[in-house]
Design goal:
By secondary structure, this protein is of the alpha/beta class. It contains twelve helices and eleven strands. The chain folds into two domains: 64 residues, Helicase, Ruva Protein, domain 3; 190 residues, Rossmann fold, CATH 3.40.50. Helix 1 runs parallel beside helix 4, helix 2 runs antiparallel to helix 4 and helix 6 packs parallel to helix 7.
Length: 280
C-alpha cells in the first residue's frame, strides 16, 4: 500500500470512529509508525509501506479508534518546546499549563536565585520547564504516584536536567523540610465529579483519574494544598495554581487572607492561573 493511500484510508477510519481531528491523528500515528516527520509524508506519497509498517499502523489506528489518546500510543507529547515521555500513569501535558510557566518565570528571574517546588509533578513537565528557563533556581518536585514519579525522573534524565531537580515520593508537601520556598507551583486535580459528564470521554476513560478529579466540587485537593503552602512559603512567597473557570470563585475565597490574588485567563478567555502571595 502506498503511503498516500494508507493516510487516506486512516482518515476515513478515524472519521467513522468519531475521532476528533482525524487527519492530524492519522498523520501523527503514521509519522510514529515510520519514524519520520510530516514533511516526509508529503514528499514521498508514493512510498510503499511494507507488511510490518502496515501492521503497526493498523494497530495504532485500532487503539486510537477505541479512544486511546494518541500521546499514549506514541508515548510522547511536546511541552514548552521539549519532547516528554508520557504513559497512562501521567496526565498528558497540555498547552494551557504553559501559562503557569509564563507566569512564574518573569517573577523568578526578578528575584535571582529562587527556591521552587512543583507539587504533583506528574510527567515532570512543569518542574523541567522551570529548570530549563531558570538555571540558577533550586527546584524540587513532589508526586504521590510512584509510577508517575518514575516517568518524571525519566524525563528529567533524558532532557539532561535530572541534576537540577530533587524529586520526592510524597503527598502534596508532606515531609518536605524546606520551609522558605519562593514559589510553590501546581497543576492539581481540579475537576469536580459533578462535572464528569462535561469532560472528554477519552480523558475520563484513559487518563489517571486521581490527576483529573479532585472530589465532588473540584476544590478538595486545593483546599489541602493552600494551608500546606502557607507553611512552606517564605513571607512574600508566591503560590501559583492551574485552575478552571468552574472553581475560580472557590479558589478566590480560599485565598482571601493572601495578598496580590490574581486570576490569569488562557487564550480562550478561561480562568487558568491563580496566583497569590503569602502575606509579609
Amino acid at each position: 500500500m502506498r503511503l498516500k493511500d494508507a493516510l487516506t484510508s486512516a482518515i476515513e477510519r478515524l472519521t467513522a470512529a468519531h475521532v476528533g481531528s482525524p487527519r492530524m491523528n492519522a498523520e501523527v500515528l503514521l509519522m510514529f509508525t515510520l519514524g519520520c516527520d510530516r514533511a516526509h509524508l508529503y514528499a514521498y506519497p508514493e512510498r510503499q509501506l511494507n507488511d510490518d509498517e502496515r501492521a503497526r499502523y493498523d494497530e495504532a489506528l485500532r487503539q486510537r479508534s477505541l479512544g486511546i489518546p494518541s500521546q499514549y500510543i506514541t508515548g510522547h507529547q511536546e511541552f514548552w518546546g521539549m519532547d516528554f515521555i508520557v504513559s497512562p500513569a501521567v496526565l498528558i501535558p497540555r498547552p494551557e499549563t504553559e501559562h503557569l510557566i509564563e507566569t512564574v518565570v518573569p517573577l523568578a528571574r526578578s528575584m535571582g536565585r529562587s527556591k521552587i517546588v512543583d507539587v504533583g509533578t506528574g510527567s515532570g513537565c512543569i518542574a523541567i520547564a522551570l529548570a530549563k528557563e531558570l538555571p540558577d533556581a533550586d527546584i524540587q518536585a513532589t508526586e504521590i504516584s510512584p509510577a508517575a514519579l518514575e516517568v518524571a525522573e525519566a524525563n528529567a534524565a533524558r532532557l539532561q536536567l535530572d541534576h537540577r531537580i530533587q524529586f520526592h515520593d510524597t503527598d502534596l508537601l508532606r515531609g518536605i523540610e524546606t520551609n522558605d520556598f519562593d514559589f510553590i507551583v501546581s497543576n492539581p486535580p481540579y475537576v469536580g465529579e459533578s462535572e464528569e459528564d462535561q469532560v472528554q470521554l477519552e480523558v475520563r476513560k484513559f487518563e489517571p483519574r486521581n490527576a483529573v478529579f479532585a472530589g465532588p466540587t473540584g476544590l478538595e485537593v486545593i483546599e489541602k494544598l493552600i494551608p500546606a503552602a502557607h507553611e512552606k512559603l517564605k513571607h512574600g512567597g508566591w503560590l501559583l495554581l492551574e485552575i478552571s473557570g468552574t472553581i475560580t470563585e472557590g479558589v478566590k475565597k480560599l485565598l482571601e487572607h493572601w495578598s496580590e490574588v490574581t486570576i490569569k485567563n488562557d487564550l480562550q478567555g478561561i480562568p487558568r492561573v491563580a496566583s497569590a502571595r503569602r502575606p509579609e
